[in-house]
Specification:
heterodimer; A: 268 residues; alpha/beta; Rossmann fold; 2 domains; 4-stranded parallel β-sheet; 14 helices; B: 475 residues; 4-stranded mixed β-sheet; 23 helices; 51% helix; globular; binds iron/sulfur cluster
Chain lengths: 268, 475
């Protein structure tokens, strides 16, 4: 912690002078489906002066169990995540949804277990979603990337409403050379993914994502970005089914200037 | 009212294919949201008022027994009577006793969700008593033999053309050539018909938005004034209310009123806020001869002191459903009972049992918009999750889903095994997808691929790729 941080008691808002060690919480979807996002996150974190480590025994944040009502398995997974990550300066995830599970829901999960609750609270203070970590903690105001495209941005629910992420990605996207950001109508409305919801209630989920893709098409953008892979896979799957060739990518790929790989779901 | 929450999935399929309904639902999405936002933005202290409202209700719920006692004493001091109803059946019997004693033939009704909850209309008809709904929306619904699909806009699922057709069908004594194009003409036609009924009614029934312990007063808010006429012109006023409607003082009521209409319709206040205390006094010119309150429990006291207690703060403003993507997609009837949307997803399992209403807390994306706008800051997603936990504990979920989750959770807790499994599976899946980079269908993923393609994985997992990338082994 810097002297500055100690004095004003807010180490997490002042850009640190030293090199903090950030443990990357890859998230299971990025690990399995879109490793590019993990590499983009590493580049962005290193550019922001961090040393990045990737703890090898990570699997998932436990959300599928948590939202299915399986509290005991969730707790077991949460204890494992905390044990694996609590020693680092920061824990960063390229997802508002998983970030929020670690940050907001773990402490709640152990509400009746004082020892683990305290540990979960201490751990939660280190946890951040990637883009907001760059801007709010590391003080990043611009990125070194170029993309000659018009993009639009969908605000994923947990990031927006549980972690307050709205301006941060837009602020950094505006510094990407050649990029034009056009606002998505009803950007703050759910895309209908909802984890297991989208397979438990496929028809309802489809109606919701259908509204989203209509709005996306109305922007005329070349590319749709968001900060959560679950939403992105859902939206991309629907766009492709509608034969809409708008490219879909995680915002980190664009901010890191790593858009050489095919987009999510390939090209149309 | 017949419960169809068990067939939620089938209900939604029907709702999604209903063109009229889908057209009507767009108004919910377009109308309510912007109006609420504007009202909230125009009042700098809106969030502070919400906090205050939460405080008032939390305090009341903690001392509910005391406030109910105080309330009953005041009602009785003003010449009214409070009847405690254990459940729906009990409430209906109490009502019938009053109606029989008064030899009632017609009952006019202001808007009350408790009447829906206890199925009063059907019960009255079985007993030869004619219920007449006086709220325009409720009146339309009654003509159509339906139930409300929204707690503050009961006929929101019906469009103007349908109302016109209904009026022509039922109001046969009026000129068939009359002009009914504008919504105002529909309103005035309904008014004209209802005006005659108020004075003829033997009993006027209303709900209550608040029951004030300090004064023994019941409060209703309406936009049409029908509630006032119902309770004033009937010879006997019966208030149907559930016990969490109690608030300590008039001042508390005024505080909560400031967030109620703003959250509901974006109005600063509803057009009418009407307070009634007891029957007509000798010095009053108008008013009912008798004043009764049927105070319904129906499972609510069982929520006190549990993880569902916060739900009892609900003031029935409807903001949660107005902002719910699932409600916007499928409408209120899909939920299969009286209370739809996020508040219904929490309340319905408490009142009719999670075995019947198990779908409702599951049919949410947890997008959190309901909680963000709820004036009473009720953590709706968290409580839906509590219901899912109850279902999980009592093995109420589908077997296949449970088994799948079990395998996944087993692996997620064993990193080495998990790694081995996914390191093999992901490259295989990528191969299977071929060059396209996505699947149009995939065994076991039918829920996904019914409506969307499934993006294929890039190939190696991140962990594999990272280990081979020269970054060194993951730690
Ligand atoms: S849960 Fe909240 S938003 Fe929904 S009706 Fe009740 S008070 Fe209004």
């Amino acid at each position: 912690m810097t002297l500055n941080g100690m004095i004003d008691g807010a180490p997490s808002t002042a850009p640190a002078q030293t090199t903090p060690t950030v443990a990357l919480f890859v998230t299971c979807l990025v690990d399995l489906f879109r490793p590019s996002v993990g590499f983009a996150a590493i580049k962005l974190l290193e550019d922001a002066g961090c040393k990045v480590v990737v703890p090898a025994s990570q699997t998932c944040c436990g959300q599928p169990a948590y939202n299915s009502g399986d509290r005991e398995d969730t707790k077991a997974i949460a204890r494992h995540v905390i044990e694996t990550f609590e020693a680092y300066d920061y824990v960063v995830a390229p997802s508002g949804s998983c970030g929020s599970t670690l940050k907001k829901h773990y402490p709640e999960l152990f509400a009746n277990d004082p020892a683990w609750h305290e540990r979960a609270v201490r751990f939660s203070q280190k946890v951040h979603e990637l883009v907001s970590f760059l801007t709010d903690v590391r003080g990043v105001t611009e990125v070194d990337a170029a993309l000659p495209a018009t993009v639009t941005y969908h605000d994923s629910c947990s990031g927006l409403r549980e972690l307050g992420i709205r301006e941060q990605p837009r602020q950094l996207l505006r510094t990407v050379e050649g990029l034009t950001l056009t606002e998505l109508p009803e950007a703050d409305v759910c895309c209908g993914f909802g984890g297991t919801f989208c397979v438990k209630y496929p028809d309802v989920s489809n109606a919701i994502v259908g509204k989203k893709t209509k709005h996306i098409a109305s922007t005329g953008a070349d590319m749709l970005l968001a900060g959560d892979l679950g939403c992105l896979m859902n939206i991309d799957g629907k766009l492709k089914r509608e034969n809409n060739g708008i490219e879909v990518r995680h915002v980190a790929e664009v901010l890191a200037g790593m858009t050489d790989k095919p987009p999510i779901g390939g090209k149309l | 009212m017949q419960i169809t929450s068990q067939t939620f999935k089938a209900n939604t399929v029907k709702a999604l294919a209903d063109v009229d309904l889908q057209r009507a639902l767009r108004h919910v999405e377009k109308g309510f949201i912007g109006k609420r936002q504007k009202a909230a933005d125009a009042l700098p202290e809106f969030d502070a008022l919400r906090d205050n409202a939460v405080e008032i209700k939390n305090h009341t719920l903690k001392h509910l027994d005391l406030y109910i006692e105080a309330y009953v004493a005041k009602v009785e001091a003003s010449g009214g009577k409070v009847h405690f109803a254990e459940d729906a059946d009990h409430a209906r019997r109490i009502f019938l006793d009053i109606a029989k004693r008064r030899k009632a033939k017609t009952v006019t009704k202001g808007k009350t969700m408790i009447s829906e909850e206890i199925g009063l209309n059907a019960f009255l008809e079985e007993n030869g008593i004619v219920p007449v709904e006086t709220d325009l929306g409720e009146y339309i619904i009654q003509l159509r033999g339906e139930h409300p699909s929204h707690i503050i806009a009961p006929a929101v699922h019906i469009n103007r053309d349908q109302v016109e057709a209904d009026f022509r069908k039922f109001h046969v004594h009026l000129d068939p050539e009359r002009d009914l194009v504008r919504p105002e003409t529909l309103l005035s036609e309904a008014r004209q018909i209802l005006r005659q009924k108020y004075g003829e009614a033997d009993i006027g029934v209303t709900g209550a938005n608040f029951l004030i312990a300090e004064t023994g007063t019941s409060v209703i808010v309406t936009n049409e004034g029908n509630g006032d006429l119902t309770q004033l012109l009937g010879k006997c006023h019966v208030v149907l209310a559930s016990l969490e409607k109690i608030v300590p003082t008039l001042e508390d009521t005024a505080q909560i009123l400031r967030v109620l209409a703003r959250s509901a319709t974006g109005q600063e206040m509803s057009v009418y806020t009407t307070l009634s205390t007891g029957p007509k006094r000798t010095e009053d010119e108008d008013g009912p001869e008798e004043y009764h309150v049927i105070l319904l429990d129906n499972g609510r006291s069982g929520m006190l002191g549990t993880e569902f207690e916060d739900m009892l703060r609900c003031i029935r403003c409807g903001a949660c459903m107005n902002h719910c993507p699932v409600y916007h997609a499928v409408g209120g009837h899909s939920y299969g009972w009286v209370y739809p949307g996020p508040m219904g997803a929490v309340l319905t399992p408490s009142l009719i049992g999670v075995d019947k209403a198990g779908h409702l807390p599951n049919a949410s994306t947890f997008c959190g918009r309901c909680e963000a706008v709820c004036p009473m800051r009720i953590p709706l997603p968290k409580m839906m999750r509590h219901w899912r936990e109850k279902e999980f504990e009592s093995h109420l979920q589908p077997k296949a889903a449970r088994a799948g989750l079990g395998v996944w959770a087993y692996l997620a807790r064993r990193p080495k095994l998990y790694r081995a499994a996914v390191s093999y599976a992901m490259p295989a899946l990528k191969l299977l997808a071929g060059r396209k980079g996505r699947f149009r269908s995939l065994p076991l993923a039918g829920g996904w691929t019914k409506w969307r393609d499934l993006p294929a994985p890039e190939g190696r997992t991140f962990m594999q790729a990272y280990a081979q990338s020269g970054h060194g082994d993951p730690k």
